[in-house]
Amino acid sequence: MTLVDRVEKVDLETKRVRVRRKLEGRHEIVEAPLPALLTVVREVNRPRYPKVAMRLSALEANVTVLEQRGS
Asked: Which among 28, 46, 43 has a CA at the least distance from the CA of 1?
């Protein structure tokens, strides 16, 4: 499936995927059996900015630093 802009549902029991395709001036809902190859539009990967509360909690988060030992 090409021009996918949203994955609507992945059903592992029935091994099917439902996606929304972006077409000229409209959208189309398509369902296919898994495994399926999807190509997506650029807009599908827009980063989301965290809400203020999450940004503030990140300031106080403890981060574990791992060191790589000699290779």
From this structure: 28
